[in-house]
Amino acid sequence: MIEELAAIVGAKNVLTGTDADPYATDVSGMRHAEPLAVVRPANTQEVAQIVRLANATPFPVIPVGGRSGLCGGGIGEAVILSFERMAAIREIRADAQVAVVEAGAILSDIHDAAEAHDLVFPLTFGAKGSARVGGFLGTNAGGSNVVRYGNTRDLVLGIEAVLPTGEIVDLMSGLHKNNSGYDLRHLLIGAEGTLGVITAATLKLKPKRVSAILDGLRGALAQRRETAA
Questions:
Q1: Domains and CATH numbers, the chain
Q2: pTM of the model
């Protein structure tokens, strides 16, 4: 199994033994499980090959992002599929107000890339410096702006994913209106990798100026309520 995984991603990207120790616990430090191996693919095609190999061997696969969860979902006696090498922000389409990102892209890096175009990606929370796209899509994260902008699924226009069969599904539409059949995107978001492995996404961005104005108005209203009280 290790040799076949190495043939897909390269030997240096298959970690075993002590090299895999950092992936044996979550950040709570309360759980421990030795992975069979940690595999770091570079693209969606390699993810698909790994999943097909898992079906043929078979061995369990656990996809992980920033590994900031506290519930033990990112550890296990399995092949850990880490997306740290798939961290590209492929494109910022400023006119369309969307970002095309890979599953390993870190949330704070997306914030910085959007800000360079005078835009914002509204999702934010304490682990933004380590959380990766696949993780916050897989868990349908809320964050501190959830009341205004909704959960993660409300900020996603499209996704790319690998199904349990190893098939690649390209749902990377950038359309804000898309009523073409079943919405498989929303089935996969929040499923924590159980229905498929998300490898990329098209995210909604918002104008920075509008966001700043709304923040200012909210602050002014809060101050007025305090004064009235």
A1: 2-82 (3.30.43.10), 89-209 (3.30.465.10)
A2: 0.86
